Amino acid sequence: MSFEDELGEALRQAGHGFTPDRQALVAGGEQRGRRLVARRRAAVIGGSVLGLALVGTAGAYTGGLLGGSGGSGTANVAAPPALSSPPPARGEPRSGTGAVSDDQMVAWLRQLLPEGQLTEAKGHGTGAGPGGIPGASGVYDDGRGKAAIGVSLGRVDPKGASTAELLTCPDKNKFDYDGCTSETLADGSKIMVYQGYEYPDRRVPTKSWHATLVTAQGYQVEVQEWNAAAEKDEPVSRPDPPLDPAQLKALALAPLWRPALEDLPPARPESPRPAPRPGASAAPVLDGLLAGYGIPVVAKGGEGDSAYAVLDDGKGKSMVTVEVQSDWQPGFLDSLFAGAAVLPGGTKVVARQTPGEKGGRDVVWWNVDTLRSDGTRVIVSAFNSKNQETDATREDPALTMAQLTEMATSDKWARYGK
Asked: pTM above 0.70?
């Protein structure tokens, strides 16, 4: 019996009647930490104000550098954005001595905003206690429409892997946004200014723009703004958020935040971004496998054990992704591969067809997950859109389930990373 016949028979016997164990899937990724940074970035791109941080850089900025001080005004019923951030590591202190008060944080935000009114203002000083994120937020109105705005301060490891990822503009082929710049300043500080949407799939037109600054000392400042009076559940009040990218950058760089930042305890050291395994590069393997199908590739990317390509056969764009994981211990993924087809040689194969999970309308996710006897896991997926966050461009992905299976079980993975 040929390989194709053996595979077809095995898949027919296994069927698709099982329920995938998503907890095992997530747990496995977290075990290696390979997707932690990606998740943190998704949180930024998705919208909520993350833990921010600092300043004290060598910029020629002074109080009021954005054009004056924001005036006070009457109360506004629209809620300002919540100050939130990823939870700290267990036992990591979040508060300072309380040298900077709640009111002082609000006063600094008012001073740094252009002329206008800041209502519903709330502040958290440096003595906010566990879970309290130093910063200020409110609803700002420059006469062109109300807009939620918030500033958060924190401390991070400036050389940490997650810090590096948060300061890197995301891949335009995988995330849908309007603009992004990332630069290193003369004093070693790094800043990213991102112009995106509260929901990456743009289910509503609420824009979410933010500037993230991390200095060489590990001070972090994040400024985030919207073109609505609240980040969610409020109608859009203006075409764009009130501060342009240059103003966002200036607000993050303002030295007024330094006393609060200096009052916060330093972050614990974080592991640096891991170097790719020697010989481990999924992209050329994916390129070689796709070449056999003759479908034009209009975009591609990835690094290390992950890669993607966007195909277009004239019927609409379709993203294909591959992820390779190594050294799985026997038994760890038993629940995920329960009922899997088992090929000669011991490779387990699971095929799934499910809706997309990132919000794009009518997106489907076709997926073939394999686990070899040496602990190597290869996951090949295809979508009927250019990425999961954008609406479907076609009824089905450009590749069939049989082709995805052929790719995931290819002998080329047996030599991967060796």
From this structure: no
What are the CA-CA distances from residue 282 to residues 27, 133, 139 (Å)?
22, 39, 46
322: containing domain: 3-32+276-415
Burial environment of residue 264 by CB neighbours within 10 A (0 to 12, 13 to 18, 19 or more):
buried
179-206 pLDDT tens trace: 999 999 999 999 999 999 998 778 889 9
H, E, C per residue of 146-194: EEEEEEEEEECCCCCHHHHHHCCCCCCCCCCCCEEEEEECCCCCEEEEE
Please list, in sequence order, all residues whose beta carbon lies within 8 angstroms of the beta carbon of residue 258, skipping any fewer than 6 positions away.
Answer: 54, 55, 56, 219
Q: What is the tens place of the pLDDT at every residue in 162-180?
A: 898 889 998 888 888 999 9
The answer to whether residues 89 and 145 belong to one domain is yes
Q: How many domains does the chain have?
A: 2
- Please name the residues in contact with 169: beta carbons below 8 A apart, sequence gap of 6 or more: 180, 181, 182, 192, 194
